[in-house]
Specification:
Blueprint: E1 9-10, E2 13-14, H1 16-36, H2 42-52, H3 56-82, H4 94-148, H5 153-168, H6 173-184, H7 195-198, H8 206-212, H9 215-223, H10 232-238, H11 259-273, H12 285-294, H13 302-309, H14 313-322, H15 337-344
Antiparallel strand pairs: 1-2
Helix pairs in contact: 1-3, 3-4, 5-6, 5-11, 6-10, 9-10, 10-11, 11-12
Length: 348
């Protein structure tokens, strides 16, 4: 996937703006050609009738992209032109008038039917996507319960991922969906890691590390077998790569690492630092952010770290609380030995 560039782009516009520009260009191009033809030339009458039917193309595209609103907008434009209200004369012959009314009626019929069909299709696809995502969340929760004694770790980091991606400038819905799913399933490969390694409270031996480091490739291999999870599999495969090239499993460096994996690498470490694990207690947001910034340009992409640092703590805390996790801004002060002694041996 590389750097984020998945949005449609037309003359510098992207996403919905690109589609609006495309539909407007089609409507204007057809109208310009139509107005340029001789109005009273008998040999061009048939060509003008054929050319007016080309309005069906932007009507269909607008219906597909924007639903009923798009269909109505494109059809109104075509009606104004063909109805003699926007630069085109209304025919004098009765037969031609009837034919023109028929053309306009066809525009509205096609626009209405296509809008209805495309909106029903979007609704159906949306239901399938919701069902798929619910299944993925159930799988991630089951894996979390095994390792973290809670089923919210993967959901929490997926929510962090979306917030960081938006802060970084990602707006395309399809790309955000890929990032969310990749973050949700980042540790799916740990399903093949033995409990004695995965749940070991102390440091891992070299042999155990070799086993643990297999989980990105195992997880990516599982996801690549499913069509709509092939793009998220990049995050699963590369989220342990380091920005300086010393990560695993491929030793990729800098912009070679897909953007989704660079974003999630920072999120994964931040979440590990701010939650209780078998090998440490949770740190505060401030402590974790300091640690992450220390690893900028070695472990993490500096641009990603800078974007994460701009996210208000309140928003991160809301995400954590929504996923049943406390998040402190600073660590509570450690009591001095004098304070402890005073509590244990209060004065009479």
């Amino acid at each position: 996937m590389g750097d984020y560039s998945r949005e449609e782009s037309i003359f510098g516009f992207s996403g919905p703006a690109a589609r609006i520009v495309a539909a407007a260009i089609l409507l204007l191009a057809i109208s310009i050609v139509l107005f340029s033809l001789p109005e009273k030339s008998a040999e061009w009458i048939g060509s003008r009738e054929i050319l007016r039917k080309f309005y069906l193309l932007p009507i269909l595209l607008s219906s597909m992209w924007f639903g009923a609103r798009g269909a109505v907008s494109a059809t109104v434009f075509a009606t104004l032109v063909c109805g003699g209200l926007a630069g085109s004369d209304w025919p004098a012959e009765v037969s031609s008038q009837i034919a023109r009314v028929g053309e306009v009626a066809v525009f509205w019929l096609v626009g209405g039917l296509s809008a209805s069909i495309f909106e029903q299709q979007k609704l159906f696809v949306g239901k399938i996507e919701v069902a798929n995502d619910n299944t993925l969340m159930a799988l991630a929760s089951a894996l979390d319960a095994r390792e973290h004694n809670t089923g919210v770790h993967s959901q929490r980091v997926a929510d962090y991922m979306l917030r960081l991606a938006r802060e970084f400038g990602v707006r395309d819905k399809d790309t955000l969906d890929v990032f969310w799913r990749g973050a949700l399933l980042h540790d799916v490969g740990k399903i093949g890691i033995p409990d004695k390694v995965l749940l070991k409270p102390g440091p891992l031996s070299q042999e155990e590390w070799a086993v643990m480091r297999n989980h990105p490739e195992v997880g990516a291999g599982m996801l690549r077998k499913i069509e709509f999870l092939r793009s998220p599999s990049e995050i699963v495969l590369y989220h342990h790569e380091w920005y300086d090239g010393r990560g695993y499993p491929r030793g990729m460096k800098g912009a070679q690492i897909p953007l989704g994996a660079r974003l999630f690498a920072e999120i994964d470490v931040y979440d590990a630092l701010t939650t209780d694990r078998a090998y440490h207690t949770a740190r505060s947001h401030t402590d974790a952010l300091t640690k992450v910034m220390e690893k900028s340009d070695t472990h993490f992409d500096p641009a990603v770290v800078a974007a994460f640092a701009k996210i208000p703590f309140e928003e991160l805390r809301e995400i954590a609380q929504r996923n049943e996790t406390p998040l402190l801004f600073v660590s509570p002060p450690v009591p001095s030995s004098y304070q402890v002694a005073s509590v244990l041996s209060p004065r009479p």
